[in-house]
Amino acid sequence: MKVTALGILFSVLPQQSASLKCGIKGFTSRCIGDTDIRYNPDISYDLKELDVFWKLFEGLYVGDHCIYLADGTPQSEVYLPGLPKESGFGSWDGCNQKSFLNITFDGSRYYRHEYIVSKHNADGPGGLQLPGFVNPTDFFGTSTFQKNAKIKKLGTIGGYDPGGGIFTVDTANLLTLTPVGTKSYIALTDKRNSSGKDPELYESTRCVDSECNQISLYIEGYTLSVDGTRAVDYSVRASSIKVGKDTWMEELSKAFTKYNVPTPNDPFTEIPEFDGNGFTQPFDPTTSDSAPECHTLDCPTEDDWKEQDPYLGTSPYIEPFGDLHTAFVIPVPILILYVIYTFFLEHREKRLKGEMLRSIANSMGLTKSKQLKRKDLKKMYDMIDDDFNGVLEKSEVRSLIDEAGIESMSEKDYDILFAAIDLDGDGTLDFMEFCAFFASISVGESESETRRDSSQDHLYEEASIASA
What we know:
Helix content: 25-40%
Oligomer: single chain
Radius of gyration: 35 Å
Mean pLDDT: 78
Shape: elongated
Structural class: alpha+beta
Strand content: 15-25%
Strand order of the largest sheet: 1-2-3-4-5-6-7-8-9-10
Largest sheet: 10 strands, antiparallel, barrel
Distance between the termini: 18 Å
Order of helices and strands: HHHEEEEEEEEEEHHHHHEHHEHHH
Number of helices: 13
């Protein structure tokens, strides 16, 4: 029985073409990732690479922070949770607050840590001034599989929890931060009100200068009335300056002193329950090298990050393998090279590869093909000839193999393979050699019988390369 190599090729062509990379010039379809970055494996999930604004925004900031009532009046009296006006412990100034912000990016992860320091209004029992209040906030977010530079909220914590370790991924009130240009971002809550219309929070932070050495923040919080209309419930304005670590620590220490926030070693003891977290310094900036990693003392675990970090998940945007162009009437050379290579890899010892390929080359002879037209071969030949010099260099064919994703082919194996096709041994393929690669070869029946009897692994030595 006579077996043709091209017959073998056609039998495996669907499987082999399915494993070819997209975007091989002239052979497979364009990669989706060429126009859609979601599919482009060369585009990372790193936020600072996706948008320059995040790179500019990173740093330590010291600023002034003020809360406003719905009518725009500064909220000079803030009563803490659990300490209403009726308790008689007084209020804290919600407008002349100091903000200490730490913005950090780590690849696909975003960290926003902040201390807001407020001064007591000295309206406690008998006009007593209670300690200042330190309110910590930690916000965590990640980039997305869309690679659109947006930050999706993972979760946030405000204040101190005596139990600790309470961080949970927020799936109910998601917030998305979207960079705008290279100078600002807008944050909107994804949770919609009962009418299914407007977001419940709007935040805008912008760089005042080109290097983001100063930022301005504006927040609006909304409530939904019974009739479905939206109204501003409060707003926040803040202006902050980017500083170095030493200045950040020094300014924090000054704020603790100015706003009467004692150290844990010397707490306020005139009234019980004002000597713990929030009413004492969270750490001593005069002796510590840095603030706690998470200001609320509750950090997400790696399992929490796995819920959303694209580096720890599987993207739904996977580049499919390339489809062969249907205009071709002949198998592309790379598929033939690939089949020859993989056939040897599976069925022969490595020491026999060179011998068998040389045997095939020595037995090649140009014959007239009934189906392979010269113009078709010339068209294919010119597509591979990148520099249009009339011959195919070894590097041009190698590039074709590399583009096809045959990463396991060593240089030695490629040298053997190329030598089998390069009939005159000059290191290039001219058009005649290219045609010879597709030409038919007859192998004697007696020789075929001898080989067939030796082993089934020698089936390829019986094969004759014939036209399609």
